[in-house]
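Hello Y.,

Per our agreement to keep a running log of every chain we model this quarter, I'm adding this entry. I've kept the format consistent with earlier entries: sequence first, then predicted structure.
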Amino acid sequence: MNAAPRRLLVAGRPGAGKSTLARRIAEAADLPYTELDALHHGPSWNARPEFDDDVLALAQSPAWITEWQYPQARPVLAAHADAIVWLDLPVRVTMTRLTRRTVSRVRNRTELWAGNVEPPLRTIFTEPNHIIRWAWRTRHDYRTLVPEAQAANPSLQVVHLQSQKQASAYLRTLRPHSP
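Predicted structure for the entry above:
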């Protein structure tokens, strides 16, 4: 990286560990973390009407870290970001993690954003956009999304991490940013 980023995105497939890595980077670099899912989801899994405005306000703030997801948010965030940390773990790893996480959330009735809980597991067979089916269908999207964002925003730095070991090594390089 050319300089310590003050506006940082963490990209990756569902199950890659984006939120976990974003929180760890935020702590190491002393950056405020915003969970994008919490901004997006309202009751009954509906998008909050304020989401686009909230994303723009976040993007324009002086320092932040968040996940790089949601098609309408990606270009806004990338245009204001200093860097994207692309957590590009193997599909077998991310799908295993996602499946375990989903099963655990269903079993434990884990409350997520705005009081939502994961639907019953049987919906994987009936809902085309069930998280596991959607993750499989979109598993290669970042191979084009990240290069396109970098082409559209030439100053955007990309840190491409392809293993948990590389992510841990990256975390060890971070220091709190200077105001």
